[in-house]
Amino acid sequence: TQLLEQSPQFLSIQEGENLTVYCNSSSVFSSLQWYRQEPGEGPVLLVTVVTGGEVKKLKRLTFQFGDARKDSSLHITAAQPGDTGLYLCAGARNTGGFKTIFGAGTRLFVKA
Amino acid sequence: DAMVIQNPRYQVTQFGKPVTLSCSQTLNHNVMYWYQQKSSQAPKLLFHYYDKDFNNEADTPDNFQSRRPNTSFCFLDIRSPGLGDAAMYLCATSRWGSADTQYFGPGTRLTVL
């Protein structure tokens, strides 16, 4: 059972377009992280969100944590080829001890 | 810069030949994790150390072992690699427990011939 569902699984867009990717669950998370992973590299942390309804901006990237802390979205404005990569969300929840769970990721390809 | 370092970046081994992957960190974090990631899949947690306390995931095969001789270093030992163990192996650290943000190393790509 995939506790964190990411959608879409794959996205191919033109440079300059906007996009939103989603991370959804039926479970409540105490915090949620977004990572970007390039081929052959480890995931690089983009942001951590902890408060329901929280919005964080990182240049052209906007992250939102759902009010109920069950879901999150990542919006990229004016995508660039350098944004290409695998976007992973990871949520921390208490399952008789805290554990971080990863989604399977959204693979983004931005064409020049 | 404080970071998580993995060596080697690429490792080739033969079927059944033991192999050790290395991770070190300069973040002085208490927790170190090992993940296995296969193509187009989420990282899968194998085990983690909270300081010296070892925590194995229930579905981690016995073929995988780990050692943490000190705060900075953690090793992943694969005793008898099979073809199905070919994957990217990721080391991560966090300051406190598993609910804390994790910081990843660049990974080691393991090939089994």
User: What class, by secondary structure content of chain B?
Assistant: mainly beta
Overall mean pLDDT score of chain B?
A: 93
Approximate shape of chain A: globular
Percent of residues of chain A in helical segments? under 10%
Residue-averaged pLDDT of chain A: 92
Radius of gyration of chain B: 13 Å
N-to-C SSE series of chain B?
EEEEEEEEEEE
Contiguous helical run count of chain A: 0
Chain pair sharing the greatest interface: A-B, 25 and 22 residues
Strand content of chain B: over 45%
Oligomer: heterodimer
Low-confidence stretches of chain A: none
Write up what this structure looks like.
- The complex is a heterodimer of chains A (112) and B (113).
- In chain A, the strands form two sheets. In chain A, strands 2, 4, 5, 9, 10 and 11 form a six-stranded mixed sheet that branches. Chain A has a five-stranded antiparallel sheet with strand order 1-3-8-7-6, with no helix packed on it.
- Chain A has strands at 5-7, 10-14, 19-24, 31-37, 44-49, 55-58, 61-65, 71-76, 85-94, 98-102, 106-111.
- Chain A starts with a strand and ends with a strand.
- Helix content of chain A is 0%, strand content 56%.
- In chain A, strand 9 (85-94) and strand 10 (98-102) form a beta hairpin.
- Chain A has no helices and eleven strands.
- Chain A has 112 residues and is mainly beta.
- Chain B has 113 residues and is mainly β.
- Helices cover 0% and strands 51% of the residues of chain B.
- Chain B contains no helices and eleven strands.
- In chain B, the strands form two sheets. In chain B, strands 2, 4, 5, 6, 9, 10 and 11 form a seven-stranded mixed sheet that branches. A four-stranded antiparallel sheet of chain B has the order 1-3-8-7, with no helix packed on it.
- In chain B, strand 7 (64-67) and strand 8 (73-78) form a beta hairpin.
- The N and C termini of chain B lie far apart (36 Å).
- The A-B interface holds A 30-31, 33, 35, 40-45, 48, 88, 90, 92-94, 97-100, 102-105, 107 and B 4, 6, 40-43, 45, 88, 90, 92, 97-107, 109.
